[in-house]
Write a structure and sequence with these properties.
The chain has 437 residues and is of the alpha/beta class. Strands 3-2-1-4-5-8-9 form a seven-stranded parallel sheet. Helix 7 crosses helix 12 and helix 10 crosses helix 13. The protein is built from 14 helices and 15 strands. It binds uridine-5'-diphosphate. The site of uridine-5'-diphosphate (UDP) has 19 residues, from helix 1 and helix 10.
């Protein structure tokens, strides 16, 4: 594809870890198909620890810098929505006047207004949805008024989806959620959904086969076999420590535990998780971010050093790909869920908020690769429950089924990204269309 070598596009994620990762991975795939990619982040977001050479990075001012940090997410979004597109448009204009114009913009679906910014500059654009197609469909129905949000304990039936209980729906569908600007950002993803000519989804065809075609255009997933390095981690991973520790453990003997980059659990919940892990008697590798570490029970790490390793950030793909990891206790962020599915690791789902609840429903009931913990009447997952769930996935009656199903999804994910697979073909088609316009 000679022409493609000269085609440069912009990729614009919302500047948080869970959005940077998949959009960087997409960028790498687009580069491998012949496009030149400039990936945009913001001045105020944490600086990446490591970058990769095949992609250009550009940091645009979003109105905040190290001295002027936003007090709240609401304040950040308010300013971001005004300042970022202005500066971005200036940057795009300047590249054009220097004779290096961009041809296309792939933007985070959380910024639907990006399509207008692109079109004002004579470019076309496509949103990239970082969440599952199932969750996209839920937000779509919410936007269209075809989702009647059920009250507590009730369920709702949506086309091509399992019956969703009130606690299976993404938490942000509830207007009572106090994080209003986040809710707005998420729900507004669907604002102009019928306008773009392309929609990119972070999934693969077989995984969400049943769902609305609208969200099935140009699905893709990552080729994990050759690419365990994100290249844009906002936290410092303890790679060698994790690897050496995992190397010393038997096959499928370790529970890997992580709640991603944002979720914060209460102190009481943290203690229940800690002692639940201890009671399970499995080895565990637990990611507790620095901001969460003071919630750990006193002396926990010392008292459990024969069984566990606690780190503030891990090289997650390498960990999940390691043969000693037998189970992933996860908050079910979409990246983590997709990573576990693509690497064949069964899960204990312990969702916290946003789309994690819906992902957990699919993990347990649709893909059947693990169990979801039960929350007690006080809103806590007890240590006994943690122990039972870990044992069920690691060694219980259904553990073989979970492992078999996980292997199946891993194979299907590989097929999708292999040359000629569904994701690969979709990307080829997408790139060819950009190049030929
Ligand atoms: N991650 C990582 N190391 C960790 C924890 C998480 O590299 O110790 C990565 C993980 O592989 C995933 C991302 O951070 O790609 C978290 O995204 P996810 O959607 O799972 O959760 P979020 O952070 O958005 O809640």
């Amino acid at each position: 594809m000679k022409m493609a070598m000269e085609t440069r596009i912009l990729v614009i994620p919302f500047p948080i870890q869970g959005h940077l990762n998949p959009m960087l991975q997409l960028s790498k795939r687009l580069v491998s198909k012949g496009l030149k990619v400039t990936l945009v982040s913001t001045n105020s977001s944490l600086k990446p620890n490591n970058i990769i050479s095949s992609i250009d990075f550009e940091f645009i001012n979003d109105g905040f810098d190290a001295e002027l940090n936003p007090e709240t997410f609401d304040e950040y979004i308010k300013c971001f929505k005004v300042v970022f597109p202005q500066n971005l448009a200036k940057f795009m204009e300047s590249r054009k006047s220097l004779g290096f114009p961009f041809k296309f913009v792939v933007y985070d679906s959380g910024m639907p207004w990006m399509l207008d910014v692109a079109r004002d500059l004579g470019l076309d654009g496509a949103p990239f949805f970082t969440q599952s197609c199932a969750v996209n469909a839920v937000y779509y129905h919410l936007d269209q008024g075809t989702l009647k949000v059920p009250s507590e304990g009730c369920s709702v039936a949506l086309p091509s989806m399992p019956l969703l209980g009130s606690d299976d729906l993404p938490t942000l569908v509830y207007e009572t959620d106090s994080r209003q600007s986040l809710r707005e950002l998420i729900v507004n993803q669907m604002l102009n959904i019928h306008e773009p000519n392309w929609i990119l989804c972070n999934t693969f065809d077989k995984l969400e086969e049943e769902l609305d075609q609208r969200f099935h255009q140009n699905t893709w997933t990552r080729d994990w076999r050759n690419d365990n390095d994100y290249g844009l981690s906002l936290f410092k991973p303890y790679s060698e420590t994790c690897k050496t520790w995992l190397d010393s453990k038997a096959i499928n003997s370790v529970v890997y535990v992580s709640f991603g980059s944002l979720a914060a659990v209460g102190e009481e919940q943290m203690a229940e998780i800690a002692w639940g892990l201890r009671r399970s008697n499995s080895f565990f590798l637990w990611v507790v971010r620095e901001s969460e570490s003071q919630k750990l029970p006193k002396n926990f790490s010392e008292e459990t050093s024969d069984k566990g390793l606690v780190v503030s950030w891990s090289p997650q793909l390498e960990v999940l790909a390691h043969k000693s990891v037998g189970c992933f206790m996860t908050h079910c962020g979409w990246n983590s869920t997709l990573e576990a599915l693509s690497l064949g690791v069964p899960m204990v789902a312990i969702p916290q908020w946003t789309d994690q609840t819906t992902n957990a429903k699919y993990v347990e009931d649709v893909w059947q690769v693990g169990v979801r913990v039960k929350v007690n009447e006080k809103g806590i997952v007890t240590r006994e429950e943690i122990e039972v769930c870990i044992r069920e996935v690691m060694e219980g009656g259904r553990s073989k089924d979970f492992r078999r199903n996980s292997e199946k999804w891993k194979e299907l994910a590989k097929e999708a990204v292999d040359e000629g697979g569904s994701s690969d073909k979709n990307l080829e088609e997408f790139v060819a269309a950009i190049v030929s316009t």
